Amino acid sequence: MDAEAWDERYRGKELVWSAGPNRFVAEELADLPPGRAVDLAAGEGRNAVWLAEQGWDVDAVDFSAVALEKAEQMARERGVTIRTVSADVTEAGSVLAQAPLFDLALIVYLHLPWPRMEEALRLAATSVRPGGTLLLVGHHADNISRGHGGPQDPDVLYTAEQVAEAWRPSARIVKAEAVDRPVETDEGPRTAIDALVRAERI
């Protein structure tokens, strides 16, 4: 989907995603000392706003102007400030290069064909200072056959190890695993399978 398609999806008054942070983001980052963070493909800003509430100085990057407007509104309603950056995550290097290196780069449910996904992963790694944290949560490739929801195109899915391999030249892998995520549906509880990768920039 391109920016216009995502704009259309986000245009409604209601949030497409929940207002709270992704559960794995909250679990992995709850004890991390706040600093400067970049949320790549931030969407409506649920994770960026949560980080700001924890004391982080946050840049939220997305190519949907409508999503970023909703992120700014959510931040105002919750009494925090985030900076929004309108850019495709695979082409945001020149924008992020103007800022000091970040303490955290976050990618949550970004799904692109693998060559473009690798570009986004490299951008995340190069935007973080040595010792900083990289965190990705996404729909695992196994979710099509064993899980619920998410993209059904295998070309835009990945395993935790694929992501870890892309980060390994420039980061120490702390965690790379498939994790279960309970999902409530109209048909009852289901389980989605996510890829969770956390790394420390070297």
Q: What is the helix tally?
A: 8
Tell me the strand order in the biggest sheet: 3-2-1-4-5-7-6
Low-confidence stretches: none
| Shape summary | globular
What's the story with the biggest beta sheet? Answer: 7 strands, mixed
- Hey, roughly how much beta strand do the residues contain? 25-35%
What is the helix fraction of residues, given as a range? Answer: 25-40%
Architecture blueprint of SSEs:
Elements lengths: L2 H8 L12 H7 L6 E5 L5 H8 L3 E6 L2 H13 L5 E4 L6 H4 L5 E7 L5 H13 L1 E12 L3 H4 L13 H8 L3 E15 L2 E14 L1
Parallel strand pairs: 1-2, 1-4, 2-3, 4-5
Antiparallel strand pairs: 5-7, 6-7
Helix pairs in contact: 1-4
What does this protein structure show overall?
This protein is α/β, with parallel strands linked by helices. 32% of the residues lie in helices and 31% in strands.
